[in-house]
Amino acid sequence: MRYYSLEKLINLYDGYRKVFKIDSHHLMLLQIDGQRYLIESQCPHREYPLRSSDVEGGELVCPQHGYRFDIRSGELLAASEEPCRNLRCYTLADRDNEVGVMLAE
């Protein structure tokens, strides 16, 4: 496992969103109501970018087909077409004055 720095803690605020590509991982860091989340940045249904997705009551809504995922667990809550796998969620790691993620090399 290797640590990858994503952002300085001082730069995070509610409403923050940023997409990262690390090797084959497409990630999106969000902060909502003081909580930080790191999820895959593409919908597992048809790989539509989630950067402009809405988050409503703890649910992330894909802007393309309205698929709904639990922002904390990634669990698929509602599908408008065929079901798909859950959204991948990653554990954030704080180091010094930054937040990052541990990923397999």
TrEMBL record:
<keyword id="KW-0479">Metal-binding</keyword>
<feature type="domain" description="Rieske">
    <location>
        <begin position="3"/>
        <end position="101"/>
    </location>
</feature>
<comment type="similarity">
    <text>Belongs to the bacterial ring-hydroxylating dioxygenase ferredoxin component family.</text>
</comment>
<dbReference type="GO" id="GO:0051537">
    <property type="term" value="F:2 iron, 2 sulfur cluster binding"/>
</dbReference>
<keyword id="KW-0408">Iron</keyword>
<dbReference type="GO" id="GO:0046872">
    <property type="term" value="F:metal ion binding"/>
</dbReference>
<dbReference type="InterPro" id="IPR036922">
    <property type="entry name" value="Rieske_2Fe-2S_sf"/>
</dbReference>
<dbReference type="InterPro" id="IPR017941">
    <property type="entry name" value="Rieske_2Fe-2S"/>
</dbReference>
<keyword id="KW-0411">Iron-sulfur</keyword>
<protein>
    <submittedName>
        <fullName>Nitrite reductase/ring-hydroxylating ferredoxin subunit</fullName>
    </submittedName>
</protein>
<dbReference type="Pfam" id="PF00355">
    <property type="entry name" value="Rieske"/>
</dbReference>
<keyword id="KW-0001">2Fe-2S</keyword>
